[in-house]
Design a protein that fits this description.
Elements (H helix, E strand, L loop, with lengths): L6 H24 L28 E7 L9 E3 L2 E5 L4 E6 L5 E6 L9 E3 L2 E5 L4 E6 L5 E6 L9 E3 L2 E5 L4 E6 L5 E6 L9 E3 L2 E5 L4 E6 L5 E6 L9 E3 L2 E5 L4 E6 L5 E6 L12 E3 L2 E5 L4 E6 L5 E6 L9 E3 L2 E5 L4 E6 L5 E6 L9 E3 L2 E5 L4 E6 L1
Antiparallel strand pairs: 1-32, 2-3, 3-4, 4-5, 6-7, 7-8, 8-9, 10-11, 11-12, 12-13, 14-15, 15-16, 16-17, 18-19, 19-20, 20-21, 22-23, 23-24, 24-25, 26-27, 27-28, 28-29, 30-31, 31-32
Length: 378
Amino acid sequence: MMRVPTTRWYMLLRIAVLGLCCALAAVVLALPAAADWPCFRGGPEMTGVAELPFTDSPRLLWTYETGSSVESTAAIVADTVYVGTMTHALLALRLADGRLKWKFLARAAISAAPCVVGNTVYCGDEGGTFYAVNATNGRQVWKLTTGDQIKSSATPAPGAVLVGSYDNHLYKLDLATGRKLWSFKSDAQVHCAPCVVSGLAVIAGCDGMVRMIDLRTGRQQAAADLSANFATAPAYGSGAVFVGSMNGEYASVRLSDAKILWQAVARKNGGASYASAAVRGDAVIFASRNNTVFRLDRASGSTRWVFNAGDAVDSSPVIAGNRVFFGCDDGNIYALDLASGRQVWQFSAGAAVTASPAIAHRRLVIGSTDGAIYCFGR
């Protein structure tokens, strides 16, 4: 026969269960929601993949006019969009209707994507200053000055944020204080956003190297010399990172030892790439300044399809469901069928779109060089 617990023991059990629930809730709240887009390419691995499905037939929900070129890719966290402008402003907009929540003025233009961790927004400017800003009210928490401009979008890591600078360094900074935990010196500018995966920070630099750096110590573990100039963030998938160069060379580099698994060359008009790849399953989607977006096979590097756009594509493509979204210098935002590369949707922005899409909470947000920020959804 089961004993009925005494009132004292019953109350102790309730307190213990409630304490455990509160602790689990605190852990969950500290982590970014799967539906968010908290940093460039959607997450530390730089895959460029939206976690939740997005509509196949987007419609314009709102437009916000900044009065300045928008080259910064947005971050979307909960009900807020964070994006930088070339007139030094870091903006927080309501995702629901595009209304301004706050504006923070940096010392120089902001072309990097913001990175949101907890209640803080991290972003660098082209004057070389890196900022931590309160996500609720837009007030500065701390700042750190590097030796040159920052075009690198910051990437979160446990207890830290990583960012590159044109002073040739990759920095690991304490989230709360901005204290420098380590800095890694490369042989040229660090333009790309670092990829963070499996205890490594991976950068593709202007020195032609793809470097695997120990996230704890800041020491290089392996490197591949591709003798090319890189602006793109390495994108991770299935044990390798994928990069495109300004020389029109595209490569898969194994994460464990930096072995080059394959290389492909875009021969049309040089094939230079400023856009980061999107990687999901066996699909690697690249974009090029030779007016093309193309899908390569992840394992072999063979070409599956090529889409010809109206101008150069500097906007990094994003995979959402069975669609690939990107902006173009021809003034359009496109959606392609992931399987075939066939165009399935287009929106005319009227000016070049070099920023990349951010897709979260069933919304797509992207800025254009004429100063408009667009939000699309159902």
